[in-house]
Amino acid sequence: MPKLSVVIPFYGVEDYLEACLVSVRDQLLHDVEVILVDDGSRDGSRAIAQGFVDEDARFLLVTQENAGLGPARNAGAAHATGEYLTFLDSDDLLTARGYWTLVTTLEATGSDFAAGNALRFTDAAGTYQSWTHALPFATPARRTTLAERPDLIRDRMVWNKVYRRSFWERGDFAFPPIRYEDYPVTLRAYLEARSVDIVDEHVYLWRDRESGTSITQQTGDARNAAERFESARLVMDVLHAHDAPAEVTRRVASYFARVDLVSLAGTMVSAPEADRPGLERMACELAAMIDPREASDQTQVSKLIHTALRRCDLPFARALARWRNGGSKKTLVRDVARLRDPRAASEVAVALIASRTPQHPLKERRLRSSLHAVSTNAARIDVVIDTRLNPALARHATVSAQLIPSTSVRDERSSHVEGPSHGQAASPGMTHSPSDVGAVALQVTTRESMPWGVRLHLSAALGTRVDLGHYALDLRLSLPGGLQRWRGQVEGSPDVLAGPTRTATAPPRATRASIPRAGWVQPVTQPRAGLAVLAGDEVVLAGARLVSDAFVLALPAGVSALQVHRRAPIDPLDVVVTAGAVRLDPAEMFAGDAPINPVDGIHEAALLGIEDGERRPLLISGSAGPLEVSLPDGARVQLARDGRGRALLRKLPAAFGDV
Q1: Nearest to 136 by CA among 163, 161, 171, 104
Q2: Distance CA 228, CA 249 (A)
Q3: Which CATH fold topology does 4-216 show?
Q4: Domain boundary assignment for the chain
Q5: Per residue in 397-455, pLDDT tens?
Q6: Are 76 and 8 in contact (CB under 8 A)?
Q7: In DSSP terms, which residues pair with 504 in a beta bridge?
Q8: Which are the contacts of 561, defined by CB distance < 8 A and separation ≥ 6?
């Protein structure tokens, strides 16, 4: 019996199918069966699928008349023999570690299914975070439930999950024969699971088709809208049948009112005239299903649309939908005036006044700033920040900058070591709520006017005032009299980070009674731009240089080896220290490894020093910017710093632009 069965239905995807199947074939979890379901495809997709079946015994081809994605998934699941079951859309991609990561956590926890984070991607723009997965997957969890994590209602899709096949068959799960078939099944699975695992690592790449032909992109199509309505109706049935927790019901109802109902209203006014009566009936029915007492988290516009459709006031709903689709406020006012409905006029007036109300002059506005350069010595920090603000305002603004400590400190030891492999799990995260207590003030030394705003040079004496932990850069600008104020945290690229310096006096460790060895001050950009103050025995400091297209690192006495910690399940490389140094051949560092995702093609590996059998993150002394070696195939390998200032190796493919 294979460990995992992967079901991939396909229809008319000859432009995407090969890349999808390659990403499955190259998974680092090898014990899989891949069930390809030809849903009556009329293009060259079947020939592509047959080629994989002929070359790889793990691939199986099943054929049926065109019945749609839901029935095709059901047909594939019926052929599954694996311990675990998953589904993949034929135009999407997987990260190489995706299935290994999800199966590994299920093996450890016994949960009924595991779900992972997802990226959106296009061939032209590359990858970016899927907005619907950003919140629910921001924090990982094991053996959790929907009642404990109601934010998971946003995770509607079936494809970023691995299920125990016993759980799937015990629940007799099946997809309905409609588009948007995922959510009724996914929500029911969340409600019925004894526990689920939430993985913050990106395991799935969801294609955003440039052609606009995917199901989720056809928002103006009447049939698409009708099946989205049917999916919502089935979801509401699932909620009621399972007596879902009140907070889950509230969030689902709010989401439907804010997203699905507004989308249906938009289609109601943009579809062909012949389709509009049916769409209007569905919109009124969906609005009636959504109890306004439960749908409490709405935007002002969605609340107006919901209210209008609940009373089936179609002229008012149409006017609002046309405005929501991009119409002008002037047109909205004219349309509502024609209705001669005082209630509608009053509601729109409130909405328009709210949309035009200027920000309160005493309320802080968001300040957008980026870290241009940062360096430290034993007693000082020097920072250069680029702030985007109207130059005329920036010229007269008063600047206030601080390094604000986090409210809690964690032991950072070996926190760069990832995953359940190699015998050590990652440390829990730090609480990053800033507190002004213990803040370090920075002084402006130079101010440069720029076309986009102002470049600020700031400096502060650190002395012995800093304790262990993270200090976030907090920047505030205000005009004379305080009538306009801006505040924001500073963003930054790791490539602007210089190496650490020793603290003037070793700071006390909050979690130990003993005094550690001399500490380090390391500029960071994660979790927020600022400083990390580390105890001396937390990390290993190394010097680095290029010698004959190899990285040579000088290490302190007592460090016996350097570990290139490639991402699990790839084994790490241990390089023995000789005469206080190690030599890393860039061409050998990622042999047998896989990129983080197949779109960007980037590899990364943390560097750890081994001292007395204990692994510690490596810091690199010296100036900002990576060391880089070009390989014969055009790829580049960098010795760089991550956002926490930790040393890593990064391999960029030949076609990849500068980072």
Answers
A1: 161
A2: 19
A3: Spore Coat Polysaccharide Biosynthesis Protein SpsA; Chain A (3.90.550)
A4: 4-216, 219-356, 365-534, 540-652
A5: 899 999 988 753 333 333 334 333 333 333 333 333 445 557 889 999 999 999 989 99
A6: yes
A7: none
A8: 574, 575, 576, 577, 582, 609, 610
